Every structure is written in C-alpha cells, then in structure tokens.
Amino acid sequence: MDKFRRKLRRRVVTAVSAVSALGLVVGCGGSDGGGTGGGKKDGKVTITMGLFGVMGFKETGLLDKYMKENPNVTIKADIAGDEQTYYTALQTHLAAGSGLKDIQGIEIGRAKELSDTQKDKFVDLAGVAGTDHFLPWKQSQVTASDKKVIGLGTDIGPMAVCYRKDLFEQAGLPTDRDEVAKLWEGDWSKYVSTGKRFKQKSKADKVAFMDSSSGLFNAMIYGNSQQFYDKDGELIYGSNPVVKDAWKLASEAATSDLTAKLRQFQPGWDPGLANSTFATTVCPAWMLAHISEKAGPKNKGKWDVAKAPKGANWGGAFLGVMEKSPVKKEAQDLVAWLTAPEQQAYLFKKIGNFPSSQTALEMPEVVDAKSDYFSGAPIGKIFGAAAQEIPDEQVLGRKDGTIKDIFSQGLTLIEAQNKSPNEAWKTTDKRIEKAAG
Amino acid sequence: MAISTSTPSDGAPGAAPPTGTGTGGERQRRSTLLHRLDVRGAPYAFVAPFFVVFAAFSFYPLVYTSWISLHRVELSTLSLMEWVGFDNYTALWDDDRFWNALLNTITIGVLSTVPQLLMALGLAHLLNYRLRGSTFFRVAALTPYATSVGAAALVFTMLFERDFGMINWMLSLVGVENVDWENNKWAAQTAISTIVIWRWTGYNALLYLAAMQAIPRDRYEAAAIDGASRWQQFLKVTVPGIRSTIVFTIVLSTIGATQLFGEPLIFGQGPNGITGGADNQYQTLGLLLYEEGWKNYQMGRAATVAWAMFLLLIAVFVVQRIVKRVAARKA
Fold this sequence. Notes:
Low-confidence stretches of chain A: 7-33
Strand content of chain B: under 5%
Strand order of the largest sheet of chain B: 1-2
Structural class of chain B: mainly alpha
Shape of chain B: flat
Helix content of chain A: 40-55%
Largest sheet of chain B: 2 strands, antiparallel
Strand content of chain A: 5-15%
Largest sheet of chain A: 10 strands, mixed
Mean pLDDT of chain A: 88
Mean pLDDT of chain B: 88
Oligomer: heterodimer
Radius of gyration of chain B: 29 Å
Structural class of chain A: alpha/beta
Order of helices and strands of chain A: HEEHEHEHHEHHHEHHHEHEEHHEHHHHH
Low-confidence stretches of chain B: 1-20
C-alpha cells in the first residue's frame, strides 16, 4: 500500500513538472516576434537597415547626409559582407517573423523567390511618388504577379572586361582599351583565344589570363533574356543553348589552364588581386570598387577597362520595406531618396555602382565619368553602352542565386579537381535537381 | 470527534494548542505528510527547472523535427506542409551525398580525435610535473578552447590559403610545392582536423590533469622503488589511474565530432563552405543538414538528416555498451 502511494506521488510530481514545461513552451509560442528594430520615440524616428556587400549607402556617407537633412531620423545599417550569409539570415528571419530590419536589401538572384513567396511581408512600393525613373526592366524584376512592387532598384551590373595593361604588354598584346576591345569584339570565344595567346607569350609564369572560369560563364549567360528558367517558371538550363555554350567555353578555359583557379569574392581572390596573379577579370560595374580596394594603391594605373564582347547584366539590387515595420512611411521615404537619380549618380561617381535609373544614366556626371584608378577609363561611356545592350526582357527564376552558385562549383570541379566537363555537368545537374526540384 | 473533522481548513501550524488526543493525532499525521512531501518532493522541485528547459528546448524540438521530417516543407512557407510519410528517409538512404557526408564525418572525426587525445595525454603528463609557472601553462593550455570557433577557423583558413597562406609558404621552404588545401580531399580534412585539435587539446589536457592529480603519490613512489622508469610509470600508473576520464573524453569527442559544423563551414566560406567544398570533399553531416535546410530551404529533408544523426548517436551508444558488456564477460 505504502509502495503504491509512493509510486503515485512520484507520478504526480512528474506530471506537474511536465505540465509546467508545456506551459513554458506555450508561453514562448504565444508571444509575437515583435518589431523590426526601428520605431518612433519623442518625435525621433529610428530606421534600421539590413544590407550586404558594398551597396555604398553607409560607406559613401549618404546615410549621414540623410540624417543631417532630417535631424529627427536616426538610421542604423547592418552590413553583411557575404550575400549568401545575408540571404540565409533573411530567409530565417522571414520564416520566424522576427529579427527583420525596417529596410532589407534584395539581391537580384533572390528577387523572384521573394516576390513569389514572401510578397505579403513587404510593403507595396508601386505607388511611391517620384519612382517612375527606373529602367523598364529593372522594376519588372521585383514586381509580383499581382503588380505588387516589393523593392526599389539601386544599381545594375552592366559588364566589361577589366585587364592589366602591364601584363598585357609583357605578353605582347595591345594595351590601348579600344584595341583590346577589338581583340574579342562580338564573340566571347575570342576572349578565350586571346587568353591562349597570352599564355604562350607571357613571360611571367605564375600569371594566369583570367581569375576564374565562372566569371566568364556568368558574363555569357547574363547577356540573354532567358537563362535557367523560362517565362513560365520552368527550369530550362539543361536544354537552353545559352547555358550549354557558356558551359562549353568556360570549361575550355578551365581545361586549357587559362585561369588562376580562384573563386570570385572567396578567400584567395583578394590576395590574387593584390599580388597580380591574373591579368583579366570579367567585371560588372560594381566590381570596380572591390578591385581598386583590394588591388591597392600600388596597382593604381595598371588596371584598365575594355568593352566586353557582348553586353550583359550581372547583379544589381533592390531595397524593400517590411510590412511589419512600425516606421513604414519613414522607411519608404528613405528608400525613395536613396534610389533617387541624384543619389544613384553620386554612388556611381563615388564607388562605381551603376545606376538603374534612366534619368541618372543621362546625367552628365554619369555619362562623362572617368575612373582614376583604372587609367582614366571612361567608365560612364563603357558601362553605359553595355547597359544599352542588355536585353529589355530578363526572365528571372526562383532559385537563380542558388543555381548560379552550383554552376560555379561545377566549374571548380573541372578547374581545381580535374574532373572532366562531362562528369562535372552530371554532378551539377544532380545538384540543381536537389536544390530546385 | 466533530471538532476534529472541522479543523483542517483553518488549522494553521501552531494556531491553537492541542485540545485533545484526537486532534493531536490528526495534526501529527498532517505534519508527517508535509515532511514526507518535503523530503520526497523537494528533489523533484529542484531538478524540475532542468527538465522544464529540457522539455522546451530538446524534447519538443525533437518531436517537432520528427513531424517535419515526414513532410515536404520549405523554410519560407513553413505553414504549407505536404505529408510524404517516410519518403524523406528512403530518399536519404539512396542519396550518395548522405553516405559521403557520413564517411567524411567519421574520417574527420578520427583525424581530429585520435591525435587530439594523445596530445592531450602527453600535455597533461608534462603539466603534472612540478614546474615553474604551472598556473600560467595551465591557463595557456585552455586559451584555444576559449577562442570562438569562428575566429579560430577564419585565422586557420588564412593560414591554409593556397597561394599566399603561411603554411604553404613554410612548406615551400623545405621544397614542398603549393598544396591546394581546400580542393584536395585529404588536405582539406587534415586542415579542418587541425582547427579542431588546436581548439580542444588543451581542454582535454586539463581534464586529464585533474584526474592525474587524484592519483596517490605513493603509487609512483612504490613504482620508482621497484625501478620503473618515467615512461613505465606513465604507462602502468598514470594511464590506468585515469582510465575512466579517458573514456569520458572519448565519449565527449565522439559527440563533438558527430556534430562538427562550424570549422568546415568557415573553412570553405560562402557557398563552398555550405556544401563542404566543390566536390563535397569535406561535407559533414552537420553541413549536409545546413545545406538542405538553409541553402535548398527544404526543411523536411533537413529534419530527416537531423534524425539520422540522432539515431546514429544512439547506435554508437548501443554498440559501445555491447562492446563493454562483452569485454566485461571475457575478463
């Protein structure tokens, strides 16, 4: 009898602790994740921003300027260096409904996925006054099927080829940017054959012609309106001749030992820039800031920019406002101001991020811009001309960003792991199926 | 008797002096009940916070994860779940990425655990000598453990860089050509193991040291009298003396190795970190979980990997128990 009672009591105690545990769980689940960090207090407005890479707003003092013009506004910007890391965190925050900022940057490779699956969490920016100045295709990239606009455009990425004059000279190639552009005019395969010439004649053994084959791959596919997906959102990378051709040429460059076997924006690439281990890199406008920073003052004037064989757009970003933000109105004003033509032109001048605003593209400070670091190259004209060649319709897909990463890795398999292009394609195919299927 | 039955509601202890034998017995019974509740119940109350936290942060997620693993669900749309039964599990079984990750987890685990524990043992033995500034050396041994995984892995990544890393530079001094640490499977796994070894050796050494100091001095003296050398003393006195601690560290390290995640993630950086290299050459189970969940955003498949890891740990535990029992029976 006593034994039984003891047993019973033990059960009661266990039950009580279990119930209180449950209460704790329910207590956690019940509360709202709450807010986005910003808010209003005593007439003061705080706006938080989540950004990535070098978007330039903080770096060039634009945010400070805005705060000076609007003394009641404080802006706190959080900048993640790596976009992949940033986007993973953003996805997690969106799913959890907490940890978001008032304003979130959106990379082009993620635009479709966000406007397809998360548009309810973003404020509709379609009606914001004074935002009809963008390139027509730019805004369409963040417009959902119901015409909701989840972000305003910052920059775009028209592409050119950045090259080292001194290394070209050593290899007996022309150094003038117009003549260099003629070497590969109209056809990316001529860029690769120039590389073979470079390799034969170059005296510097340790210098490769290009940094990575994935840069070439990106440049080739982004010159077309359809890449990995078709207009209906179906995956077509396997049958799209654009992708096939780019893969073929990029793997040819990789197997001909023309690359430094580096991965752009990954460890090794920056010291490669600083120590001149490669002579060219396909560069969208926004990459110039990175190159000049990492290659450093000692390489100033050695770099130049030549027109690419074919105009293409790599990258670009948008700024979206979160529906949850307690300062939606103020955040919209800030986004509209940051993406206005004047600011876009200013950013281009300061760090080379190319405007997505048609108005800004026609402003003299953009058209006549030259880069000191890149031997005074008329970057306004070169990238402006490339921007004109970008197809007006650009089909984005949900997993564009991820698929681009998988292709880069596929090329690394050939470049650094000695896999055959066929084998690497098979692996890539399987991985995309896993990631996007 | 009528009085005694009406008292319980207001009968606070010491409120009224005992008036009769009947009420006295009642009170005594109640106070012993309280006493027994105190004795038997209090321990449960004291351990309850742990179990509450355990239930909230371990048990509930465990159950919820198993629920998710039976669905097809994406991170961005967690509210939309599609029931797929055990499809995720069969798909994982057929997935060579899983077997590759499992194998990598084991090889990196062995590569990092074995040298780590051996070095810790040696280090602890040295620290056990009387030496000047012993506290300093003990603290120094623990410093790597106090460093964050992120910082340590980042620094090592720079050291192991192919073109301009310090390790390749030092190797070049002795005529070894540049090693592509990241892209070569065994080089990458060695590099990652180095980070783990660097971080955990000192920690394990201190555990060993604590155990060694509990070994009675006279055993050493007796051994010395019998003519045992330092090395023989180490083998015959020290190691048997800390056997249970060694088992403990092996268990800890095994669990740690199974969950290996931060070091390889940062070692590869960016997309390559998540997939454990372009060829998945150093993708561990932890990374595979992360890739499924936070790169492919397939939470169902990620949850399945998590459960597979959990079941594996249980399997390892069971095998260890069986081995132990068999060994005991033989002895």
